[in-house]
Amino acid sequence: MEIQLQELIDQIKKDGVEAAESEAEAILTAAKAEAEKIISEAKAEAGKLLSEAKAENDRMVKSSEAAIRQAGRNLLISFRESVTRELNAIVSENVTTVYSSETLSKLIVKAVESWTSQPNAEDVTVILNEDDLNALEETLMAALKEKLLGGATLRSSDSLDGGFRISAGNGGAYYDYSAEAVVDMLSNYLSPKVTELLKEAE
């Protein structure tokens, strides 16, 4: 009887240990599975965050590059405009200097002489602003008569700041040598040249 009781106690102990070991194994397996799941989810989240960060970084890099390119274009445009303004100012200043009284008188005589040398030339009218006309009238008329260009008439116009215009007949045809027209012509010629030079420097 005592042996049977001992065997029963041993069996209960054995069953209890096996049950505990089995339970421990199940808990350990579940814990491992949960740990693996957590690690997998963490890796997936980290991958997602890394991908999003890379995409944001790429977007910022492209945006920065575009901003730098635009800033470069704006700077170049600003520089071109500045150079063009300076050239226009230089041209305007030089045209004004060239159109000083003495030089202007010679230019007018040459222009009228060239015009009246044509076979079908008509009498011409030289138009100046009032100040230049008053300053040059005597000298001009003497020079025109000396070259037998007596058919030339002088008159003033408020629309001219400097320079002169030559018209034939009733003003149906004329050449514009006004300071403004000459500055525009030279500036229009210089602007494409400046643009080409700046392109070569890029």
Would you kindly provide a written description of the structure presented here, covering whatever features stand out?
The protein is α+β, with helices and mostly antiparallel strands and 202 residues long. It has four helices and four strands; from the N terminus they run ααβαβββα. It has a four-stranded mixed sheet with strand order 2-1-3-4. The chain is rod-shaped and about 160 Å long.
Task: Give a quick set of tags describing it.
alpha+beta, 202 residues, single chain, 10% strand, four-stranded mixed beta sheet, 76% helix
For the largest sheet, list the strands in their spatial order.
2-1-3-4
SSE succession: HHEHEEEH
Work out the helicity level. Answer: over 70%
Multimerization state:
single chain
Mean pLDDT: 76
Unreliable stretches (pLDDT < 50, length at least 5) are none
SS class: alpha+beta
Shape: rod-shaped
SSE map:
Blueprint: H1 2-98, H2 101-116, E1 124-128, H3 130-146, E2 153-156, E3 163-168, E4 173-178, H4 179-201
Parallel strand pairs: 1-2
Antiparallel strand pairs: 1-3, 3-4
Helix pairs in contact: 1-4, 2-3
Short note summarizing the structure:
The protein contains 4 helices and 4 strands; from the N terminus they run H-H-E-H-E-E-E-H. The chain is α+β, with helices and mostly antiparallel strands.
